[in-house]
Structures are given as C-alpha cells and as structure tokens.
Amino acid sequence: MPFSVLQNELDERAAQNLLRRRRALDTPQSPHIVVDGEPYLAFCSNDYLGLASHPQLIAALQQGAQQWGVGAGAAHLVSGHFVPHHLLEQQLAAFVGKPAGLLFSTGYMANLGVVQALVGKGDTVFADKLNHASLNDAMLLSRADTKRYRHGDMAQLTQLLAQTPSGRKLVITDAVFSMDGDIAPLSELLALCELHDAWLYVDDAHGFGVLGEQGRGCLSHFKSPPAPLLQRGVPEPAAASHPPLTKGGRGDLDSSRIIYMATLGKAAGVSGAFVAAEQVVIDTLVNHAHSYVYTTATPPALSVALSQSLQLIEQGDKRRAHLKQLVEQLRNGLADLPWQLMPSDTAIQPLLIGDNAQALRLSEALRERGIWVAAIRPPTVPQGTARLRITLSAAHSAADVEQLIGALHELAC
Q1: pTM of the model
Q2: Cα(229)–Cα(227) distance, rounded to whole angstroms?
Q3: What structural domains does the chain harbor?
Q4: Rounded mean pLDDT, 279-303
Q5: Which residue, 91, 95, 182, 295, is the most exposed by fewest CB within 10 angstroms?
Q6: Quick one: pLDDT at residue 224?
C-alpha cells in the first residue's frame, strides 16, 4: 500500500478534528506534571487514588526487582509463573469475593482472552453499545454472533435474549462506562442472565479500588450503603503491619454466573489486570485464553508492588471519601455552565461539548491556562458528543478543583 494512501487518511482525520497525537510527560504521574518544560494541573489521568507514584509502591517494586529480577522470561505456562504472581491472584480473588483469579498483562488482553475462550461459533454475545473498544474487539475475535443493545436498555436486552434460544450466551458490559462515568445496572443484568441462562462478564476497570466497601469494586458497590463523607485531606496510610486481606461480603451479586475483570493500572496505580471467577472458569482461561497462553508473563516485581497496592486500597477509605467530596465540589461548581455536565457519581466527569473543533479549542484554552483536560472525540464517543473528559483523583486538592472551575467559568463568558 503506498504511503500516500495512509497520509491521505491522516489528513482527512485532521480535517475533521479527529487526529490524535501523543505528548510525553517529564515528571511522574501526578495532578501536577511537566510536559515539554511547561507545568500543568492535570485532570486526565485514571490514577483515581493517587497511588501511581506512592512511595510504598515504589519501595515494593524496588524490593520485588531485587528479589525476583526484572523480567519473567517466559509465558506463565512455561516457566514464567512466579510465586508473587500466584499469591497476588489469590489475594485479588479473595478481595472481590470470588473463588479464583488470573493475572493478565492488560485489561485489553484480559477482555480478548476471556470472551474468545468462553464463546465461539454458534454462541451469542450481548453487548452494551457504549462498551469499551476492547470488549467490542473481543466479541468480534470470538466469532460468536453479536447482538448490541442500546446503552442501559434492559427491555431491548430482554428481547434479544429471548430471541436466542440456543448456544452459550454471554452478556458483556463495562461496570463504569469510561467516557460517560455512569454505572451499569448490574443487578438487573444479573437477573436477566439468571432468567435466560447466560454468563455476565463485568469489566470493572474504572470501579475497582474506588467503588464499594474498601474499594472492592462495583459488585460490592451494589451490596453496600454509600460510605459517609469524611473530612477533607488525604493522609498517608500507615506503613506498618499488613494484615491478611479479608474476603468481600456475600450478596445478590455473588452469583457464579458473574465473571469479573478489573485493571491494575488505574486506581491500583501499577499495571496489568485480573479476572476473578469460579475455578472452572479460571481453569478454562488457563487452557484456552490465547492472550494469556501465548504471551510472556508480566515481571514478578509488578506483582510484589500490586500486593502492596491492594493493602493501600483496602485501607483507603479516607482517600475515597476525599475523592467523593471533590466530585461533589466539581459538580456544584460547574452546574451553571453552558455546556452540560453529564450525570455521573464517579471520578469520571464528562463535560459534553458536542462539536469536535469546539471541544479541541476548549481543551487548548485550558492548556494555555496551565490546565490539562483531554478532549474526547469520535470514534471513541458517538458523533456529535465530543466532550472534555474530566477525571478526578484523591491526589487532587480542593484548591486544584476550584482552579479548574474558575477557568471553565472564564472560558464560558
């Protein structure tokens, strides 16, 4: 293919204000970063608990590398499955209340592997239309029939399930939708799966560590009353003893039909992903999930750091309460803007702009004021719904949020 064809496609994207470019950070991940020598107050990271540069995680990673080396050297099924991997899988499964767990290199690879391993020709995948791209790619890779239902539309999903009498059935959904910030109706989805003998695969990339009791994620979120607001401020957790992680509570969403996935590079602050489910499901993935079987294992030192991260998540109620206060502060402060702040109780707060060019201009105007908020455009979001995706972290201060509120009010005038 001539390179001119590729360049023409890129030029067309640029003309539509859809061209993407990368910018390299000069500092560790933090609300306050330096890019190209310029300081910015950033509201575009998924580091929801502010753990990505936490000193205890840095120390744990250093200790892990010292003890276990830098690379795994092989796939898990060859000679790349280390004791830290194994222990972390057990800890993660217990933390979210499932019998067994399995580590993956990324959430994208987890989604590809799970869906491809569980369904194929003659089976059917049912998917929310706003699911993450990795779930969309996974269902296509599986070669199963695919049926997409309108976002959150349980009536349409009911019809689609009823019209599919044979084969394995797998309902796949984001738990927290990454571009809208809303939460899937997991209880209703599970009820439909029970009624129609289907599995429910939940991608909790943006809920794990943030929602639910002790940050156990969306399954716990729907079983627990909301935590009371605590005082502002994020004190460092004590670094002393590390008690064994307790198992998540049992409840309505403890069904064996649920296959749970969460990423470990967002609220957990490190890298990777895990799947937690019944032992027979995990055994099936070990044998049939291509993105697990045919790739080199992650460095065992990462699992050492993630084990420490899990302790900080479990002890992180004050961080989560502070984050909740910041969400409320932002929503109150932006309530009267000409742009619509989409309904969300999570750390993802999308400001709907609509036009691609206008979203880019607004993002650039904020950048000129030293504030970095990403403009999200199609195909990541539907046509006509370009937005600023504001993400908050427990590492932000109330003054940081107030600065963003003030800048957006200036730009709205």
Answers
A1: 0.90
A2: 6
A3: 17-46+318-412 (3.90.1150.10), 55-315 (3.40.640.10)
A4: 98
A5: 295
A6: 46
